[in-house]
Amino acid sequence: MYIYIIDDDDAVRESTELLLSTSSFDASIETFASAEEFFDQDLLGHSGCVLLDIRMPGMDGVEALKKITASESNLVVVMISGHGDIPKAVETMKAGAFSFVEKPFSDTAITEVVTSALQQSEAQQEEAELRAHAIIAIEKLTLREKEVLDKLVLGLLNKVIAYELGISTRTVEVHRARIMEKLDVRSLPEMVRLCLLVEGKDNALAAT
């Protein structure tokens, strides 16, 4: 996990780094004087928290936030706002920011929001890994297994699936068992959750 501090104010950047480095975060901390400097390092594939100042010369915090969210990165963004930037900070939350802290912020405020952001990033990373696993597993299903899975996700009973596909209920049960084995799940709700997770990103249940 990483904590990235992006702020053109040297004093804010250095004091925040010092505070977080002396806290109990299990994360590497890096600082950047501009959004351009951050993006030049190609760090969007990492997980962690970005403390991002709203007002900076060149690319401002709003533009940088939109670039991070558009990349579907697991980095969670916390906006740093001045007193007059609250309306803009609220706008950034609608654009995907996790939260914002107002300058001058207290030690407690910044450590609490970074803790929450890191937890959110970790959850997003776990979900992304689960989704990737599910996509690969679903792609390995046979055409018939995908057809059965589609109907299981719709909540149809085995006998209804059998009727609609023109196969026996026993055959549906066999397919269902094989599907659960390939997806590495132990229950129907777990199977449905995996499929919905995949469908949120791609139509992985479509026959190929």
From TrEMBL:
Gene Ontology molecular functions: DNA binding
Domain of life: Bacteria
SMART domains named in the record: HTH_LUXR, REC
InterPro entries linked: CheY-like_superfamily, Sig_transdc_resp-reg_C-effctor, Sig_transdc_resp-reg_receiver, Tscrpt_reg_LuxR_C, WalR-like, WH-like_DNA-bd_sf
Keywords attached to this entry: DNA-binding, Phosphoprotein, Transcription, Transcription regulation, Two-component regulatory system
Domain Response regulatory: 2-118
Residue numbers of 4-aspartylphosphate PTMs: D53
GO process terms (BP): phosphorelay signal transduction system; regulation of DNA-templated transcription
Gene3D superfamilies listed in its UniProt record: 3.40.50.2300, Winged helix-like DNA-binding domain superfamily/Winged helix DNA-binding domain
Any single Pfam family the record assigns to this protein: Response_reg
Residues in HTH luxR-type domain copies: 134-199
PANTHER family: TWO-COMPONENT RESPONSE REGULATOR
Protein name: LuxR family transcriptional regulator
